[in-house]
Amino acid sequence: MDFTLFLFYAFAAVLLGASVGVIASRNSVHSALFLVLAFFNAAAIWMLLRAEFLAIALILVYVGAVMVLFLFVVMMLDINVERIRQGFWSYLPLGLIVAAILFIEMALVVGGKWAGLDAMPMPAEPAAGYSNTKALAWLMFTDFAYPFELASFVLLVAMIAAVALTLRARAGNKAIDPAAQIAVKASDRLRIVSLPAEKSN
Predict the structure, then answer these.
(1) Assuming Cys at both sites, which of 32, 34, 84, 162 could form a disulfide with 21, CB separation 3.0 to 4.6 Å?
(2) 36-84 pLDDT per residue, tens
(3) Domain that holds residue 111
């Protein structure tokens, strides 16, 4: 076993352990920190596979921006964990069914051969001037353009859902209705009062 393969197994083992910690931790902040550790190890594995752009993008985008924002949101919302856990056993069968479906889909993806993956294979020893960023962009915007757009749409829906969840109605919260402001008329804001004329002495 060479040193590169040893590093791969080491990073993969830590990645699996951190992934288990994400779903097994009782504290949401600890789960987020485990996810950061998982992202770092996934980036290290991508570095071993000579996918430097993906590794750097994972660290900068997810660890540097998304996870920091997630930690701030978790700490600001102050979620009542005990109330959420009250219906755990009632949703457990549905969760197991969804987990089984995801496991079967991942097994099909890992074990099967996707059409188009061998369209531009990465060489074992990249030649001079080879750019994996260019190869990734070539595949993303040609063979996998529709899945890329679908993933963007899913992220857009998730972003809208996150905004809708954080903007829930709260007691004592002062809000302005833009539709009511636009629909206002001059007669609603201005009232002409007729006063009798008075003579000064």
Answers:
(1) 34
(2) 899 999 999 988 888 888 888 888 888 887 777 777 777 776 666 666 6
(3) 98-119+133-163
Give yes or no: residues 137 and 107 share one domain.
Answer: yes
Q: What is the mean pLDDT of the chain?
A: 79
Percent of the chain with pLDDT over 70: 80
The distance in angstroms from the start CA to the end CA of the chain is 112
- What is the tally of structural domains in the chain? 2
- Look at residue 168 and tell me if it is in a domain: no
